[in-house]
Amino acid sequence: MIMETERLILRSFRETDRDVFASINADPEVMRYFPAPLSRELSDALMDKALAKEKSDGFCFAPIEEKATGDFLGFVGLSRPSYAKPLPCDPCVEVGWRLARSAWGKGYATEAARAWLRFGFVTLDLEEIVSFTTVINAPSRRVMKRLGMTYDPADDFLHPAVEQGHPLEPHVLYRLGRKDWVAQTGG
């Protein structure tokens, strides 16, 4: 799968992505809203899971690279969450992202996520796409708002994959329905 935006190429993972992907996942600052940075083994497992989901679902979180340089910037995409315990929005498709620090503050997450939203609503014919993060993740919450997603405190939840009582356990859920997306973008 390949999509393009004005500045980005959105594509499938390649074996050659493993080193740079692992360095992003090991960066404590990038991972500050997750329970811990990922080891190389866990990073490789995450990439393998993304590749398997892309094969089974036809989509998953996927790399973005800068057109001008070919630099791997991180990942953005859609995914069907799969946790041991259900989320309050299950079944659902989420849009999410994780970018290298060097890519922060340039609008890349929003640009790539908009392409994925279009793919979700037009190609996959989804009725709704969600996004969620820990309550304190203000940067991701700003991206969700820029995407036109809405937040209702009644949807707040405790993430089932985060240790009970951990400061990152409380999560917020943002939603975007197809009708709202069409109204905002013209479809």
TrEMBL record:
<feature type="domain" description="N-acetyltransferase">
    <location>
        <begin position="8"/>
        <end position="169"/>
    </location>
</feature>
<dbReference type="InterPro" id="IPR016181">
    <property type="entry name" value="Acyl_CoA_acyltransferase"/>
</dbReference>
<dbReference type="InterPro" id="IPR051531">
    <property type="entry name" value="N-acetyltransferase"/>
</dbReference>
<dbReference type="Pfam" id="PF13302">
    <property type="entry name" value="Acetyltransf_3"/>
</dbReference>
<protein>
    <submittedName>
        <fullName>GNAT family N-acetyltransferase</fullName>
    </submittedName>
</protein>
<dbReference type="InterPro" id="IPR000182">
    <property type="entry name" value="GNAT_dom"/>
</dbReference>
